């Protein structure tokens, strides 16, 4: 009897042990599944972190490239401005050469006329002709332009206006005619005579529509109207600058001015 009871107890213990083992196996399996799930999440986090690092690297590389492009653009802009300055100097020298040639031609014609007169009359020129003093040397185009510009730089605006107007009267077809007309507008703008400034700048646009001074003239017309409290006309000309000359520095200034006007 005792043997049977002992056997039953042992059997029950085995069953319980197997049940515990099964439960433990289930728990282990569940734990493994949990670990695998956690591992997946860790892998995903690692991937996201790596992706973020990669994105940051891409952004950093892009920023560096943009900085380099900006630097290259500034260098190129500097070269363009330098070339424009050299071209301007060359154009002024060419104007001076043309002017000198014109003076020489006039002098030759004058001498030929005197020689012809002497030949026809058969007499030498009278003493009054010999005693006549030579006329004072006239300023060359570049000298006249620089003199007027110097007056502007010294804020002698009335003298500068007279100088540029005289330049345009004497040398209307030279390479700096558009610039002379533009600086007349700047003189009036500096004197707060905005109506006259608008008129002067408008002549730049009308007479020299493809000039490098055209964007600046339109921009200053817009500012002149703004100073006259004519907001509608000011906006009209600022938008013209952006539309007609989108890559000019004046277009950038016009956009900034319009943004401030909208605030």
Features:
0% strand, 263 residues, 84% helix, disordered N terminus, elongated, Serine Threonine Protein Phosphatase 5, Tetratricopeptide repeat, mainly alpha
Can you characterise this structure?
The protein is an all-alpha fold and 263 residues long. It has helices at 2-121, 127-131, 141-153, 157-170, 177-190, 194-207, 214-227, 231-244, 249-262. The protein has a domain at 138-262: Serine Threonine Protein Phosphatase 5, Tetratricopeptide repeat (Alpha Horseshoe), CATH 1.25.40.10. It is 84% helix and 0% strand. The protein is elongated and about 150 Å long. Residues 2-9 have low confidence and may be disordered.
Cα-atom Rg, whole angstroms? 44 Å
Oligomer: single chain
Principal-axes shape call:
elongated
The level of helicity is over 70%
CATH fold name of the domain at 138-262: Serine Threonine Protein Phosphatase 5, Tetratricopeptide repeat
Helices and strands, in order, run as: HHHHHHHHH
CATH superfamily of the domain at 138-262: Tetratricopeptide repeat domain
Highest-level CATH class of the domain at 138-262: Mainly Alpha
Strand runs, count: 0
Tell me the span between the first and last alpha carbons: 105 Å
């Amino acid at each position: 009897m005792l043997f049977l009871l002992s056997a039953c107890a042992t059997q029950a213990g085995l069953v319980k042990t197997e049940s515990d083992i099964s439960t433990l196996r289930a728990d282990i399996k569940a734990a493994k599944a949990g670990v695998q799930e956690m591992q997946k999440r860790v892998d995903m986090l690692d991937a996201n972190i790596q992706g973020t690092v990669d994105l940051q690297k891409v952004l950093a590389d892009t920023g560096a490239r943009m900085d380099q492009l900006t630097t290259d653009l500034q260098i190129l802009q500097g070269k363009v401005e330098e070339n424009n300055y050299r071209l301007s100097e060359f154009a002024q020298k060419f104007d001076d050469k043309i002017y000198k040639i014109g003076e020489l031609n006039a002098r030759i014609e004058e001498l030929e006329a005197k020689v012809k007169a002497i030949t026809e009359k058969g007499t030498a020129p009278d003493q009054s002709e010999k005693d006549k003093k030579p006329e004072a040397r006239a300023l060359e185009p570049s000298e006249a332009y620089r003199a007027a510009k110097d007056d502007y730089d010294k804020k002698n605006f009335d003298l500068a206006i007279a100088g540029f107007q005289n330049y345009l009267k004497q040398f209307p077809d030279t390479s700096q005619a558009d610039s002379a007309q533009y600086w007349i507008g700047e003189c009036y703008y500096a004197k707060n005579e905005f109506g006259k400034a608008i008129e002067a700048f408008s002549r730049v646009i009308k007479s020299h529509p493809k000039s490098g001074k055209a964007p600046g003239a339109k921009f200053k017309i817009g500012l002149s109207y703004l100073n006259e409290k004519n907001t509608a006309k000011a906006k009209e000309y600022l938008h013209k600058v952006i539309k007609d000359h989108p890559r000019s520095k004046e277009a950038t200034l016009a956009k900034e001015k319009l943004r401030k006007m909208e605030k």
